[in-house]
Design a protein that fits this description.
This protein is an alpha/beta fold. It is 44% helix and 13% strand. The strands form 7 sheets. A 6-stranded mixed beta sheet has the order 14-15-16-12-17-18, sandwiched between helices. Strands 25-26-27-23-28-29 form a 6-stranded mixed beta sheet, sandwiched between helices. Strands 3-4-5-6-7 form a 5-stranded mixed beta sheet, with helices on one face. Helix 19 packs across helix 20 and helix 39 runs parallel beside helix 43 (1318-1336).
Length: 1490
């Protein structure tokens, strides 16, 4: 390439992606030209082996047309010009240009769009070339240069002459003044040159105890050279109790340069360090140790870095109920400075939406999993648009194409390249790009094992690895990206005998690169520094704090006002609970009071206490909501969009209106139903005080959410915090009876000040005022003192929230540019160096799987799939249902592998679910046979591999497969044969090397993504089925791992199995593994036939398309399938036209004939069989009745009660065997959850110590304290079961998968899941009882302690099953966590402590206490504690001396006539009823909607 002027910016533009689908996009070259000119001098490019120097072309601002060996200057306003250029590859290019045009960014004297000169709307470019591989790139460069026109490519392959004409419409004119930066007065962007020099990053792992680490850290160190590695290792005297910390290098000596105008793809195999490198460059790493240098325009990162850079994360986090336009507008309001007017901000929004192709969806909701919104590609482009709203010079993108098909991925990256055209620097991690997408890259940075294996022009990466120096062969690859990934993954072997096999080692590849002409040490005049980042985020923001706060308030308010489900749920829950409370305490406030403390006095004070507690606990369900916004805040704060104060203030303000409304609803309903004191001042004082209490609770929930690492942790912490605070309110234990060591806690408990004010306020004008205030020790307090105290708590909790939201100071340490073995002084570090070994020693090919499956996978007769005119719709009725599939036909025979392909929303997964009988709702018409039968086949013949790998994360690979063999193989198979089958499948899929490795999860390190997919396949093929369905098995995997996974599937199909698989963006190697292809577009079928014929089908004369040479057929077919290609006449084909073309094609006729023959033969066979049985009277009519399914919609339903009774399910194992195996699996899982068991035991011990110290050595007259301890003992053990909710919902997901596969039934799963948590629950309850009973000094009579433990444990088990019931009836764990406390409150409200049972209304008291299991537990504990206990002084409760105080005391609670042993059988019955009730949601409630 010729170097261009140093001062020229790269402004070559690409045409709109929607109209350039027929040629490979050109790589950008001007930035690399400048790089070579300025930094690399006369360094030459590495040509492809055996080929001429590559030819590239680009348009610069001066209007030069640059080639490798010459250049042609284009006049600013040429009227008519013909240019012929002969390149080194003997390519002749003839260009007839009526008038040169360029896109925005060229000098003003050049027209900025074809619309400026209509006479130049088309240009004919003819390329005659037999060998030049760069012709499509030249074509794309010319295409981008002129903005639009007609291009014809003529080339010869063997004896066949091909011609392809592409019509490209010009890109619309864009006024670049929209992007004007007010600070410099020009739209031109000052690019950022990014340089890293010897950058390394380590994570540190500490071993041993804290004390041993402290000793080691202060020990004397020694330095020892490490043989053969060139590094050093520091060592110190070892200690018996600990060891030195170790370092693991994630990045190793990364040196690279990325220039303005370049799009650099960071690529590599899984776990190579791509995202780590991007995080390091973007300043997002906050922990660990970093060495080396990073320079941005020759300087280290400073405070202006975050204002001039953008970081687009892999997952897209936006407010789902905002529109795209609103999301962009609020981004403009927050990210553009105050010098911009509102009109200019809206102009920027329009410009950015045009730039990224979002104009058509501006009024659409963003959406999420629960709200229908924009597509995945649009969502990714929206994330980019938000981040670039302030037009930063440096943009980082983490996996922007993950989960997108090749067309969407190309769309996203094409729009991203428009940003680079404006002289921006872009780095993007990416895996499995198509050849078109890869051609968009200016530079590629290959990372493997943390090292750089190549950094240079993307167009020369393949040539570098195929050069004689490295000796790799790319003969079998058409996509350069697949080839280079295969090389750095160790899948390709070099032919270089000098280097040998060591060239596949990461370190060796890095050394070869560093000794090549592509490697150049960066030249910079920046001062030497090792500080690669800021320890704190800068405090300068684009807008003022006031503007930030007002904008965030407006954004939050719009989002909250559209969350009607959440608002309705809040109000509905409060109405229900308030109504129940009002019913329980109905009319208690209107009872005539006496000067003594009576049941009425207790009931009224109890109402206010539990109403206060409810308003506190109602904030529990807000935590998941708060946590979502916390994630969004963390991202926007790290991007320096707004201050912590602005978010804190906006969040504190915008939630108040909903809190007020829901609070008023609850208080007003309960207040007037109970009949509390009808005085306006007393009423509004109570309303205001309880609201202050509610507000403090909300801010406390905010603080817990802010400091918790996850929503699950916050949900677990919240009840414990308020259990502590609520214990000092004065109700459970009067303030006068608090132990001396706990009196301080009552002063920091805001519920105490709330409750004290409420009691004084309510009893202010009642006769029993003095007795009540003396009972609770509230007689020396003024209710108005509580107002400033509560306001002080509001201020204090808000300060805590602000501190919790403030970004933590970075713990990242920086060292000098040292070798990996060097360590800081006075610190012992052991550097873990990776051994020199192949990159991927377990990379397997199809031949490897064939060898492994020999004699392990016997062939079978197989089952064929035949379906004709399948249609599927969803809705309330067939007439009003929306059609998802609109007539799909096809056949798949044994030994074949069929690919279902199409864009997002095409109906691939819907069709797969229908074929696999996995749909749970909707209407279907059409004909479908598996193995010649219309009935659903048994599970042993059919398997379905879901897209998400659902396994038990704590099990190893071998354990997972062994349990699959135990459950899925039939009853006659011996145990030894089952183990052998598990081993055979494991070896066949190449998993024996990870047999003892945990499966893992997002929170637990385990096997890789590719191994997890193969494990899912192994589980499903354990019974060697005849038909296998797979849903997106390669999603999230790079091309090499995808090929490995699909090779294992291809090997299964080779054993006469029928395989149907949905897939998107397959590489050519993966695509060629399939036999047949079924294409869908918006539910319509556009092709079915052999994979090898698909390209020719879409290149037929009628369509006028031609697949360019070197293009991945899968990418070409996807573009054609979605109607994105332009024919000879310049027109496009609609999806409906493509569907009609297929229906009239020979392919469809052949399919129809085959299906007709099969169905006719089947009909004749059935008729003959029926004639023999019925003398032929019913045969024909019966078959017509079966075939009529094609005309009459058949409703798909889930399991119904009658179907379950009349048609029992069939499974491989007996019900008893299923129960035994599942129970064994559940107990094994529970045994491995040692950490959870430990935390459960620790929690119970701490709470027991707290309760024991709070109620220590209770005095004889402490009646209320004893009652409170007994009540809250059973309350705590029941509430503690909330920690099982995530486990229940996770187990349910696995149950859905295995039940759908026909592995086992509902009853065995119910039985095993109900038994698994009994030991943990019982052990935790007994531990709590043992500690608290001894510390509190409860009844010391013989047997009293044992009875206490038994009853508390039984209540804990009842609470466990009640928790399971709520969890199984809830769609997710967040809702279950919200519903469980409210539902449990309704149970404990009738226990006899919250309200005395004789005080209940007759219509409620006659049945509600009977069905409350908490009542029988509390009753038994009260009788056990007080009956026969001569140490008790009853005067506090009875207020008089009577002969039989115990009997009067028991009658006061409504427990008369019972002994303590009566509670045991009733509790057992309640336990059994709850246990049996858990089967109802398992059997009849399913949240798996397919």
């Amino acid at each position: 390439m010729l170097p261009t002027d140093d001062n020229d910016a790269s402004h070559s533009s690409k045409a709109d992606n929607s109209v350039q689908r027929s040629s490979i996009s050109r790589p950008k070259s001007t930035a690399m030209d400048r790089s070579r000119d300025k930094e690399q001098g006369s360094r030459t490019s590495v040509p492809a082996a055996g080929a001429a120097a590559s030819t590239t072309m680009s348009m610069t601002r001066t209007g030069r047309l640059s080639f490798h060996d010459r250049e042609v200057h284009i006049p600013p306003n040429p009227k008519d010009m013909k240019t012929t250029v002969t390149t080194a590859a003997d390519t002749t290019i003839t260009t007839a240009v009526a008038s040169s045009q360029a896109l925005p960014g060229l000098p003003a004297d050049l027209p900025s769009s074809p619309e400026d000169n209509p006479a130049s709307s088309s240009t004919d470019v003819t390329i005659n070339d037999n060998n030049n591989p760069r012709k499509s790139v030249i074509l794309k460069s010319l295409q981008s240069m002129i903005g639009g026109g007609s291009f014809r490519t003529d080339y010869t392959v063997g004896q066949l002459s091909l011609s392809n004409t592409i019509n490209v419409s010009a890109r619309s004119k864009m006024d670049m003044s929209i992007f004007q930066t007010k600070k410099n007065g020009s739209w031109a962007i000052r690019g950022v040159t990014l340089v890293t020099d010897n950058l390394s990053y380590f994570v540190e792992k500490q071993k041993g105890s804290w004390w041993s680490r402290h000793l080691v850290a202060n020990a004397k160190t020694t330095t020892t050279p490490t043989p053969n590695t060139g590094t050093t290792t520091t060592a110190a005297p070892s200690t018996k109790s600990g060891s030195a910390p170790t370092r693991k290098a994630l990045l190793k000596h990364v040196t690279m340069t990325v220039l303005p105008g370049e799009v650099a793809f960071v690529m590599g195999p899984s776990g190579a360090g791509k995202s780590t490198l991007l995080d390091a460059l973007a300043g997002r790493i906050k922990n660990g140790i970093m060495s080396g240098h990073m320079y941005f325009n020759g300087r280290p990162r400073d405070a202006s870095f975050y204002a001039n850079s953008a970081y687009v994360r892999q997952d897209d986090v936006h407010i789902p109920n905002l529109t795209v336009e609103e999301t962009l507008y609020f981004a403009a309001r927050l990210r553009l400075g105050e010098e911009y007017t509102d009109t200019e901000r809206r102009m920027r929004v329009n410009a950015v939406s045009d730039l990224l192709g979002l104009r058509t969806c501006l009024i659409s909701m963003v959406g999420d999993a629960g709200i229908r919104g924009i597509s995945g590609g649009q969502l990714k482009r929206l994330s980019i648009a938000v981040e670039i709203m302030n037009m930063p010079s440096l943009i980082f993108l983490d996996e922007p194409t993950s989960g997108l098909d090749s067309v969407m991925a190309h769309d996203v990256m094409t729009f991203t390249n428009r940003l680079a055209d404006q002289n921006r620097t872009i780095l993007a991690t990416i895996h499995q790009p198509s050849s078109d997408t890869f051609a968009l890259a200016s530079k590629v940075i290959l990372v493997t094992a943390g090292r750089v294996a190549f950094c240079g022009p993307a167009s020369e990466a393949q040539a570098y690895f195929t050069s004689p120096r490295l000796g790799f062969s790319a003969a079998t690859y058409t996509n350069p990206a697949d080839f280079i990934i295969a090389v750095v993954s160790g899948a390709e072997v070099s032919t270089n005998l000098v280097i040998g096999a060591h060239n596949t080692d990461a370190k060796k590849l890095s050394e070869l690169y560093e000794s090549s002409a592509y490697f150049q040490a960066p030249l910079t005049n920046a001062p030497s520094t090792t500080d690669g980042g800021l320890t704190r985020l800068p405090q300068h923001f684009p807008t003022s704090t006031t503007d930030q706060t007002l904008t965030l308030i407006r954004r939050f308010w719009i989002a909250q006002s559209r969350q009607w489900e959440f608002v309705v749920a809040q109000l509905g829950k409060n109405i229900i609970v308030a109504s129940v409370c009002g019913a329980i305490f109905f009319g208690q406030g209107r009872e005539i009071s006496t000067p003594t403390f009576t049941n009425v006095s207790f009931n009224v004070s109890s109402l206010w206490y539990f109403a206060m507690l409810y308003t506190v606990l109602s904030c529990l369900q807000i935590i998941p909501h708060l946590f979502f916004y916390k994630v969004l805040y963390t991202r926007e704060r790290s991007a320096n969009v707004y201050s912590t104060f602005a978010y804190w203030a906006a969040n504190a303000i915008v939630s108040v209106p909903l809190l007020i409304v829901s609070h008023v609803v609850f208080v007003e309903i309960s207040y007037w139903m109970v009949g509390l004191y009808p005085n306006a001042s007393i009423h509004f004082f109570a309303l205001f005080v309880t609201f202050l209490n509610n507000l403090i609770s909300f801010y406390c929930a905010q603080y817990i959410a802010a400091v918790s690492p996850s929503a699950e942790v916050a949900l677990a912490m919240f009840p414990l915090v308020f259990l502590f605070l609520g214990s000092f309110a004065g109700f459970t234990i009067p303030l006068g009876e608090l132990p001396a060591g706990w009196k301080w806690a009552s002063y920091i408990s805001y519920p105490r000040w709330t409750y004290e004010a409420l009691i004084i306020n309510e009893f202010e004008n009642r006769l029993d005022r003095a007795a009540v205030l003396a009972f609770y020790s509230f007689d020396r307090f003024d209710k108005y003192f509580s107002l400033p105290i509560l306001c002080a708590f509001i201020v204090f909790t808000n300060v805590l929230v602000y501190v919790g939201l403030s970004p933590a100071q970075s713990k990242l340490r920086f060292e000098g540019p040292t070798s990996p073995g060097d360590s800081p002084k006075k610190e012992i570090i052991v550097v873990m160096e990776d051994p020199i070994s192949p990159l991927s020693p377990t990379t397997l090919t199809l031949e490897d799987f064939k060898v492994r499956s020999a004699q392990r996978f016997p062939a079978t007769a197989g089952l064929s799939l035949i379906f004709r005119d399948l249609q599927y719709s969803i809705g309330k009725s067939p007439e009003r249902a929306a059609r998802i599939l609109k007539g799909v036909s096809g056949t798949v025979f044994p030994g074949q592998m069929c690919a279902l392909m199409g864009g997002s929303g095409a109906g691939k997964s819907t069709l797969l679910d229908l074929l696999a009988y996995r749909k749970t709702g909707g209407y279907i018409t059409g004909e479908y046979l598996i193995g010649g039968r219309t009935e659903k086949p048994a599970s042993k013949w059919c398997s379905y591999v879901t897209q998400d790998s659902v396994h038990i994360s704590l099990f190893t690979v071998q354990e997972t497969l062994e349990y699959a063999a135990l459950l899925r193989l039939d009853e006659k198979t011996s145990l030894q044969k089952r183990k052998e089958r598990a081993v055979d499948v494991m070896k066949m899929l190449g998993l024996e090397d990870v047999a003892d490795v945990l499966v893992g999860s997002s929170l637990l390190k385990g096997i890789s993504g590719g191994q997890a997919r193969r494990l899912s396949i192994g589980v499903e093929i354990m019974q060697l089925p005849d038909v296998i369905f797979l849903d997106e098995p390669t999603t999230g995997l790079d091309s090499q791992i995808s090929h490995e996974v699909m090779s294992s599937v291809r090997n299964i199909a080779n054993h006469n199995r029928t395989v149907v698989c949905t897939i998107h963006s397959p590489s050519e190697a993966v695509y060629n593994l399939f036999d047949s292809l079924l294409l869908l577009a918006l539910g319509r079928q556009t092709y079915f036939g052999p994979v090898s014929d698909a390209s020719a089908y879409f290149s037929q004369v009628e369509l006028g398309w031609r697949m360019p040479m070197g293009k991945n057929p899968a990418d070409f077919i996807m573009e054609a399938n979605q109607g994105l290609l332009t024919g000879v006449d310049g027109s496009r084909r609609t999806i409906r036209e493509l569907n009609q073309l297929f229906l009239s094609s020979a392919n469809y006729t052949g399919i129809k004939n085959v299906i007709d023959k099969i169905l006719l033969a089947k009909a004749n066979q059935q008729q003959n069989e029926r004639k023999q049985r019925n003398h032929g009277s019913e045969g024909h009519r019966t078959f017509q009745g079966r075939a009529a399914v094609a005309a009459v919609p058949l409703r798909i339903r889930g399991d119904s009660f009658m179907v379950t009774l009349l048609e029992p399910e069939r499974y491989p194992r007996s019900t008893f065997a299923q129960m035994y195996i599942l129970s064994h699996r559940q107990f094994r899982k529970a045994w491995k959850m040692k950490r959870d068991v430990f935390y459960s035991m620790l929690r119970n011990i701490l709470v027991a110590v707290f309760h024991g110290s709070l109620y220590t050595n209770l005095s004889p007259g402490a009646i209320q304290s004893r009652l409170s301890l007994l009540f809250f003992a059973i309350m705590f053990v029941m509430m503690a079961n909330q920690s099982f909710i995530p486990n229940v919902t996770d187990d349910r997901l696995l149950f859905y998968r295995e039940r759908g596969a026909g592995v086992y039934g509902t009853v065995p799963y119910w039985f095993s899941s109900s038994l698994a948590y009994i030991p943990q629950c019982a052990l935790a309850s007994i531990t709590y009882c043992t500690v608290v009973y001894k510390m509190s000094g409860l009844n010391a009579a013989a047997g009293a302690f044992g009875y206490f433990c038994l009853v508390v444990t039984m209540c804990g088990l009842c609470g466990m099953y009640f928790c399971q019931l709520v969890s199984l009836a809830s769609p997710n764990s967040q809702i279950a966590v919200s519903v469980f406390p409210a539902a449990l409150f309704l149970v404990v409200a009738f226990a006899g402590f919250v309200v005395r049972l004789p005080s209940l209304p007759d219509w409620l008291g006659s049945w509600a206490p009977i069905i409350s299991f908490a009542r029988w537990g509390f009753q038994g504990l009260v009788i056990n504690e007080f009956k026969g206990n001569e140490k008790i002084d009853y005067y506090e409760i009875i207020q008089m001396q009577i002969p039989e105080p115990y009997q009067a005391f028991i009658e006061n609670f409504g427990f008369e006539g019972y002994s303590k042993y009566d509670s045991l059988p009733i509790l057992a019955i309640c336990l059994a009823i709850l246990w049996l009730a858990t089967i109802i949601p398992i059997k009849f409630v399913s949240f798996e909607k397919r």
